[in-house]
Amino acid sequence: MTTAPKAAPHTAVLIGRFQPFHNGHLALLQQALARAEQVVVVLGSAGQARSPKNPFTWQERAALILASLPNADQARVRCLPMRDFYDEPRWVAAVRAGVQALVPPGGRIALVGHFKDVSSDYLARFPGWELASLPRQGDFDATPVRDAYLGTPTAELAALWPALETQVPPAVLRFLQEWARTPQYAEIQQEWQMIRGYQAAWSNAPYPPVFVTVDGFVRCNEHLLLVQRGHRPGKGLWALPGGFVEPRDTLWQSCLRELQEETLFPLSETQLRERLQGVEVFDHPDRSLRGRTITHVHALDLGDAPGAALPAVTGGDDAALARWVPIQDLPSMESQFFEDHFHVVRRCMERFAGWEMPVQPLHA
């Protein structure tokens, strides 16, 4: 008795950041299209500010992926933007829910990917989905492509294009050439140079360093205290006031010092100690481009007194500006936050304010 061949899955899922989309990604996408009726491409790092690691918005990446396919295949691909969250269970649940919403009841799902290194561990986080683990699709990697693109002086970019022709689809190459003439490219290129210089300073250490930092999550009258960064990395982006721990400071002392230096905060240590709710640690390995950075967020609740004036703050030291931001305005500022600070704020709101801060929908 012969067994009937197993029906193809309805949906194949391809997950990545695609910064940028290269020929290896394209080969995986073509394999996924050959296996299923439709493909859902999950675009990571959606909603974040541009950075050397994530220079392109999810809308730009979605457009480039579709432009790299024939028209008939474009109609079978759905792009699903996805936040990073820096919280794996939350991310897995969000990916599952987002994909499931695009699959008819009973439709089988296959996850397509390549186990490259630890960054591919997510492929094992979706039990119940069939796993199509494929071999490496050519000698392609987004990181060296991105480094070459951002690290080449603008006057020398013309010599880079022939090399990139073999690495990325034609639509992506045209986009990279056009984007190199924009102010955003110049800004991210300067960020890339700063980060590389930062990393070079400790490149000869016997082990990669682990940086310890502090941040202040300060609430008052339905407002949150934020600073606008005055220097790179993240110049112009919003963040919680904070910084690196000094060699002779405790975490608490460092938090107080950073609050004073960056916001000229008027309350005394005794007054702030009375308002300390707790400390939350954020230690995701990828939360900062500068290196492994573990921060300790000190939550301070100054209370709610309707009509009362907020404590006066002024930007100082590394902060270009200090500002009390209405909590209701925070969701609309997601793409203006430095590194993972938007998600830090969300988690602290949940823990210390008992409120699940909404996020704006990412429309595909």
From TrEMBL:
GO terms for molecular function: nucleotidyltransferase activity. Keywords: Nucleotidyltransferase, Transferase. InterPro entries: Cyt_trans-like (IPR004821), NUDIX_hydrolase-like_dom_sf (IPR015797), NUDIX_hydrolase_dom (IPR000086), Rossmann-like_a/b/a_fold (IPR014729). Residues 209-348 form the Nudix hydrolase domain. Pfam families: CTP_transf_like (PF01467), NUDIX (PF00293). This is Cytidyltransferase. It comes from Comamonas terrigena.
